[in-house]
Write a structure and sequence with these properties.
The complex is a heterodimer. Chain A is α/β, with parallel strands linked by helices. Chain A has helices at residues 17-20, 26-30, 58-78, 96-102, 126-137, 158-171, 246-251, 256-267, 269-278, 289-294; strands at 47-52, 89-95, 104-105, 118-123, 142-150, 174-180, 191-197, 214-222, 228-235, 238-243. By secondary structure, chain B is of the alpha+beta class. Chain B has 17 helices and 19 strands. Chain B is extended and about 105 Å long. The chains are: A alpha/beta, B alpha+beta.
């Protein structure tokens, strides 16, 4: 019935027919909301933030794994006949404190295809870090930019992060910003992750040895995906995700989001929405803003 | 190739009298010396063949020579004129090779690498040199060798009989050919020659035999004594060991080429002294576009730029800018200099602004788009690196490049980011071998961890790092990395590395420094060195 007004490219949207029925404009239907995040999605965000501790390399590890995933997808989408291996450089910006707390990248420990392509920048303060990140995003010869900033410096406010988002959008260079030991403050990042190390899957030959890297990753804010928790693991360059079961979650402390949701249901939807608008500045936990606003 | 004009001054004096066969014969027959006036009377600078046979020698007082040969003729020497002639000859000698240098007072060095085939081989090249100089009535001796030092030695001391071959090929053992020459062939100062003569080292072979390999203790002692004797002599002409290495090509020998390349230079002299930054920016804009035109004409791009600001009160401010890749884009140069000119003090005003390119590289005409296209398509990598290095400093932007060492902190070194040739070579050598698992990040300085409970196998079961207690659940190791004995001190301990994972899944790379009972310290300590992804 609706197929007559849809352009041919949007054929896949039929799967979402009940979902898209609520939208009025055909433009809104063109961009499907991909429900759950999963590795290898085609619309990779250009500006992501990963919150992690400085005491381990899980933040940088997850950033690299996501970057590799995105670059692989982008290369496949671009052209099958494009040059087989990407030789563009990768810019890795660290502030001084991040270098002290969590170390410098070690070339031999990098994924093999990134080994010869790293340019490392060490900065003294947050302003310089932001400058370096932005210059990197404005460069057309870089594959991606990875940043590490410790804490919540005053310079990295919402305006600065919006600047980074716009630069990334304008030039199509992706940024993965690792925030070490930081509070999740206001940011315009398209995807915000919280990463933690997870026990690794046992390797094939020596079950007593540490295996392929794994992370407990929580996507707590995303523009086009619903939030969720996964155990991500990087197995020989392939990112694989296993979703967290809620049962495992409930055994621990219940997350804030669930508590707030129960309160909302008591108050009634109308009142809850008004309250949510008042709390716009607070980071949403568990559900994205859009999802809350729509409910 | 070294060319020695054996009697340059005399030849020049003879040529200055005019070229005439009859007269030449007459002059050659009469003993003549060239003299300079000194405080102690006239001293002989150069002698011709007849005078030498009569007993006159360079450095003798004229009065002494007169007693040996009363009919001696004199003429004033002209060292400056000789040097001028030598300079002319050096430029002229570039007909045999693309690069030539002066070797004062009477020699030339020409780089003939890869040029000999144009003359039909090295023998023909030397024959051509001899005939060309003979046409100019200059007596020369020329020799070809892989290094400038060897060619010099061969030209000055190695061509005494007609049977001596004036060429040392690249595969030949230069020391075997030259071992019979006197040590003066090393281009040493007179006092060093005296020292060597007193030590009994007369031939190159003697010196080389001592410095080469010691078979027994006394030879090693002799070698060490020689090294000690010349340890403080940094200048090559005062140190026979450096000269010997230069002759054999073990250390490079810097030489000044005779032709200089003028640096591109633009400047503005201002009618009114500048006191404001906006005006200076305007002048800088003009200078940068002037420079772009200048460089375009030469087909070059700037790698290093210097701006000089001459102030009215006599101060000069110089700012230097180094670029990651050759460029001549005025907007890019202006932008980078704007950063550098932040904190200059104009004083009473700036009257002259000069922009100079002290290092230029060939850059062919290409689409120039650093600034305008940057809005649409982004900047190029070189421009991005330039901006980063100008603001953050050259040491902040670097690239890790593998280095052949097993010690993790030495296994990579940090090089400038666009130094691609060296990094590609290092990478090619590295990727050939299979790598063991290494952590993603390495701490600059390994941090000590306190082992709270060690397992019977020797690795820590529970340890404290940065105030947190970690419980080790998985472990792999040890991987033993021995100290590099050829460069480290004898008390450096070996390291046993373990890859571990704690109860929360954090993966680390820790090591034990030494083993108990290695006599290099007390109880071994544990350190955390790397963080794995």
């Amino acid at each position: 019935m609706t197929s007559s007004i849809l352009p041919p490219g949007a054929k896949a949207l039929h799967d979402f027919a009940p979902l898209s029925a609520g939208f009025s404009s055909p433009l809104a239907r063109l961009k499907p909301r991909e429900g759950r995040w999963q590795p290898g999605l085609t619309d990779q965000p250009l500006h992501s933030e990963i919150f992690a501790e400085a005491g381990d390399a899980s933040g940088a590890g997850l950033a690299l794994a996501l970057a590799r995933d995105a670059l692989r997808v982008a290369r496949q989408a671009q052209d099958e006949l494009a040059e087989a291996d990407d030789r563009r450089q990768i810019l890795w910006v660290q502030d001084k404190r991040a270098v002290q707390r969590s170390g410098r990248p070690f070339a031999q420990g990098l994924p093999p295809e990134m080994r010869g392509r790293l340019i490392h920048v060490e900065t003294a303060n947050a302003e310089d870090t932001l400058f370096a990140l932005e210059e990197g995003l404005r460069c057309r010869d870089l594959a991606c930019v990875i940043g590490e900033i410790t804490g919540n410096p005053r310079a990295l406010g919402f305006t600065a992060s919006r600047r980074l988002s716009l630069a990334a959008q304008q030039h199509g260079t992706a940024l993965w910003l690792v925030r070490l030991d930081a509070q999740a403050d206001l940011s315009s990042a398209r995807m915000r992750w919280r990463a933690q190390a997870a026990p690794s899957p046992p390797p094939l030959w020596n079950a007593a040895a540490p295996g392929a890297p794994a992370w407990k990753a929580e996507l707590f804010r995303a523009r086009s995906h619903s939030p969720g928790k996964w155990t991500l693991s990087d197995d020989k360059g392939r990112l694989s995700a296993t979703p967290h079961r809620h049962a495992a979650n409930s055994s621990g402390e219940p997350p804030e989001a669930y508590q707030s949701e129960t309160r909302e249901s008591e108050m009634g939807p109308q009142k809850a929405r008004a309250q949510n608008i008042g709390h716009l500045v607070r980071p949403t936990v568990g559900r994205s803003m859009a999802a809350v606003a729509r409910a | 190739m070294a060319i020695w004009c054996a009697r340059l001054s005399v030849d020049r004096w003879r040529l200055s009298l005019g070229r005439d066969a009859a007269r030449d014969a007459e002059i050659a027959g009469s003993p003549t010396v060239l003299i300079t006036e000194t405080a102690h009377g006239p001293r002989i600078d150069a002698v011709n063949d007849a005078a030498r046979e009569a007993g006159a020698a360079t450095g003798m007082m004229l009065a002494d020579a007169r007693t040996l040969c009363p009919q001696i003729q004199t003429a004033p020497a002209d060292p400056a004129g000789d040097l001028a002639l030598l300079e002319k000859l050096a430029v002229w000698a570039q007909r045999w090779g693309p690069w030539s240098a002066l070797d004062p007072p009477d020699g030339l060095l020409v780089d003939v690498t890869g040029a000999a085939h144009l003359f039909g081989g090295e023998e023909h090249l030397l024959a051509d040199v001899e005939s060309a100089f003979a046409n100019r009535a200059l007596a020369v001796r020329a020799a070809i060798a892989p290094t400038a030092g060897a060619a010099w030695a061969l030209a000055h001391f190695g061509l005494n009989s007609a049977s001596d071959r004036p060429i040392i090929g690249p595969q030949e053992d230069a020391m075997r050919r030259l071992s019979g020459l006197p040590v003066a062939a090393l281009r040493l100062d007179q006092d060093v020659l005296t020292v060597l003569r007193r030590l009994g080292l007369k031939r190159l072979g003697d010196l080389a035999a001592i410095t080469a390999g010691a078979i027994n203790r006394s030879e090693a002692a002799a070698r060490d004594a020689l090294h000690r004797r010349f340890r403080n002599r940094k200048s090559p002409s005062a140190n026979p060991l450096i000269r010997l290495d230069q002759l054999l090509g073990r250390v490079p020998e810097p030489l000044l080429p005779v032709t200089v390349h003028p640096m591109p230079l633009v400047q503005r002299r201002l009618m009114e002294p500048l006191r404001h930054r906006s005006l200076l920016d305007r002048v800088l804009d003009d200078l940068a576009s002037d420079m772009a035109r200048e460089l375009e004409g030469r087909g070059e791009g700037a790698r290093r730029l210097e701006i000089g600001l001459w102030r009215v009160d006599g101060e000069v401010i110089v700012r230097r800018l180094e670029l990651a890749a050759a460029t001549r884009d005025p907007a890019h140069i202006t932008r980078l200099f704007a950063e550098k000119l932040e904190n200059i003090e104009a004083g009473f005003g700036i009257e002259t602004v000069r922009l100079r390119v002290s290092w230029a590289e060939p850059l062919f005409a290409a689409q120039a788009d650093v600034e305008q296209a940057a809005e649409g398509r982004g900047t190029s990598l070189a421009a991005c690196i330039d901006r980063l290095t100008v603001r953050l400093g050259p040491d902040a932007v670097r690239r890790p490049v593998p280095y052949p060492s097993h010690l993790p902190e030495r296994a990579q070194r940090w090089l400038p980011p666009l130094d691609l040739a060296s990094s590609a070579a290092a990478l090619a050598s590295q990727t050939a071998s299979r790598q063991p698992d290494r952590p993603l990040k390495l701490l600059d300085r390994p941090e000590k961890i306190a082992v709270l409970y060690a397992s019977p196998d020797g690795y820590p079961q529970r340890f404290r790092w940065r105030g947190n207690v970690h419980e080790v659940t998985r472990v792999e190791g040890p991987e033993r990395i021995a100290p590099e004995w050829w460069r480290a001190k004898s008390n450096v301990r070996l390291r046993d590395y373990y890859r571990i994972e704690d109860e929360a899944g954090r993966r680390y790379w820790i090591y034990r420094s030494g083993i108990s009972g290695d006599n290099r310290g007390g109880v071994p300590d544990w350190f955390l060195h790397g963080l794995s992804a």
